[in-house]
Design brief:
Layout (H helix, E strand, L loop, with lengths): L11 H7 L4 H23 L5 H18 L6 H6 L1 H15 L3 H16 L9 H7 L5
Helix pairs in contact: 1-6, 2-3, 2-5
């Protein structure tokens, strides 16, 4: 289920990265990641109210996009997509390991190659509408 991270075609992961470039938005998503994964654990081990962290984690990510204007996202995408959970989790791991900026640079280069017609896209066409013009 991990996203394809090659340079031979543009994938959904690449468009996710292009929509998550601002440090502030990445930090908001990191908080959302912690809420998503820690909420159930704390809800079981400490107190049931911690489950609220889990259930509100997607809306925290949406708020990051809304307030920081880094790409676009809708509530349905943020709260019901397994792909977004996987991508957000991978982004958090790359951020903590200090390699997310390299991933942004790699994807920007890949996107330039796509725009030049050098590589194809296997990404969902709808995601292109959400990346905006700030990506390259």
């Amino acid at each position: 289920m991990l996203p394809k991270r090659s340079n031979d075609s543009l994938e959904n992961w690449d468009l996710f990265v292009l929509r998550h470039q601002q440090l502030a938005n990445v930090l908001v998503h990191f908080v959302s990641f912690l809420m998503f994964w820690l909420g159930p654990v704390l809800g079981i081990l400490v107190h049931p109210l911690f489950w609220l962290m889990f259930f509100s984690s997607g809306m925290v990510g949406v708020a990051g996009h809304y307030f920081l204007k880094d790409g676009t996202v809708d509530r349905k995408e943020a709260t019901s997509s397994i792909e977004v959970v996987v991508f957000s989790s991978l982004m958090a791991v790359l951020f903590v390991s200090n390699s997310y900026q390299r991933e942004i640079d790699r994807v920007k280069n890949k996107y330039r190659q796509f725009l030049l017609g050098n590589i194809p896209s296997h990404a969902d066409v709808e995601l292109f509408k959400k990346i905006g013009s700030q990506v390259v």
